[in-house]
Write a structure and sequence with these properties.
Strand order of the largest sheet: 1-3-2-4-6-5
Distance between the termini: 60 Å
Radius of gyration: 22 Å
Strand content: 15-25%
Oligomer: single chain
């Protein structure tokens, strides 16, 4: 078989049927600004971060403005096994990890509802094993959907607590599917 060589400009329209764009210059990539997507989510947690200037470090893309808050001093976000269980729950809601933002509040002990609302523009928040007063909102019904300033709020069991108790999983799921 021989290599096909076309030099006439009109012949290219038959060979290439996709749009082609010419770019004058490509800016250099700042490799320091590119996030490390291969980071181990169950790696030991670092010290508390300053969210006021740099924002929050979170997992997901927040495409559906659902904020999931955990408090895990031993991990960057949460253990891999718990993350897999969470992804299964999201899948049952026809959602993916990219639809939510998961924040480990252990790294942001002074974060309040105002900072979270401003940064994430969330329409719903799920607190996994976290007292609502920690983010400066009044305590509400446990494991039932409430409303705080137009945000749907679900304060429920922590993942480690749910992982070993089927009844707690059911109680959580009955509320989660309403969000």
């Amino acid at each position: 078989m021989s290599d096909l060589k076309a030099t006439h400009p009109l012949s290219l329209q038959f060979l290439i049927n996709e749009d082609i764009y010419a770019i004058d210059t490509i800016p250099p990539v700042d490799h320091a600004a590119v996030p490390d997507l291969s980071a181990d989510l169950s790696a030991p947690a670092a010290e508390a971060h300053d969210f006021t200037s740099a924002g929050f470090d979170y997992l997901g893309e927040n495409n559906r403005y659902m904020l999931l808050l955990v408090n895990d001093p031993a991990n960057k976000v949460m253990p891999q096994k718990e993350l897999e269980a969470l992804q299964s729950i999201l899948g049952a809601k026809k959602m993916e990890l990219k639809d939510v933002a998961i924040v480990n509040l252990h790294h942001y002990p002074s974060a309040g509802i105002e900072q979270l609302k401003t940064f994430f523009a969330c329409t719903s928040i799920v607190l996994f094993g976290i007292n609502p007063q920690l983010i400066k909102i009044p305590a509400s019904g446990f494991n039932e959907i409430g409303n705080f300033e137009g945000i749907k709020l679900l304060s429920t069991f922590g993942f480690p607590e749910m992982m070993g108790d089927v009844e707690k999983k059911k109680a959580f799921w009955n509320e989660m599917k309403k969000l």
